[in-house]
C-alpha cells in the first residue's frame, strides 16, 4: 500500500514539484505491530552540489487508516539533518530571506505537503535547510532545521561569492 500510495502521490505532485529535487528512500523503520513506519529519504540540493539532507517522516499503515480514519493524510511530524557529503559547489541560489524550495512531497491526497527550503545566511556564511509541512487551510508549526556552515570550507561559487 505504501509504495502504491507514494507512486500515486508522486504522480499527483510531479507537475507542482518541477525544479525541486527528488528523494531516495534510504531507510524504513517499523514502529509498531500495525505497520506504521518512519521513512528516511536522502535529498540532494539541485543547486548546491556536495550537500545531502536526510529527511524523516511518518508513513501510516493501511490498518492504522482503517482504525483511525483520516484516510488520505499522514502526520506533519518530520525531521531533517543536512551534511557536507562532497566538495561544495553552489550554483544559482536565491539570496532572499524566503530562500527557495529544494524539495516537496505530498503527505496527503491534496492538502498537505512536506517541503524543504534552503536559505543562505550571508552574515554567518551558512546554508540553512528548513523542513516544514505546508497545508492549504491551516499552516503547521511543526518544523525542523539543519545548517551547513561554509566558514573555512573550500566552496566554489559558480556565479561568484555574494
Characteristics:
9 strands, 162 residues, elongated, mainly beta, five-stranded mixed beta sheet, disordered N terminus, 2 helices
Account of the protein in words:
The chain has 2 helices and 9 strands. With 162 residues, it is mainly beta. 23% of the residues are buried.
The gyration radius over C-alpha positions equals 17 Å
Largest sheet: 5 strands, mixed
Give unreliable regions as ranges.
1-19
Q: What is the domain tally?
A: 1
Backbone shape: elongated
Structural class of the helix and strand makeup?
A: mainly beta
Mean pLDDT rating: 77
- Please report which band the strand proportion falls in: under 5%, 5-15%, 15-25%, 25-35%, 35-45% or over 45%: over 45%
How far is the first residue's CA from the last residue's CA? 47 Å
- Helix content, binned percent: 10-25%
Find the count of extended strands (DSSP E, 2+ residues). 9
Sheet with the most strands: spatial strand order:
1-2-3-4-9
Please write the string of helix (H) and strand (E) elements: HEEEHEEEEEE
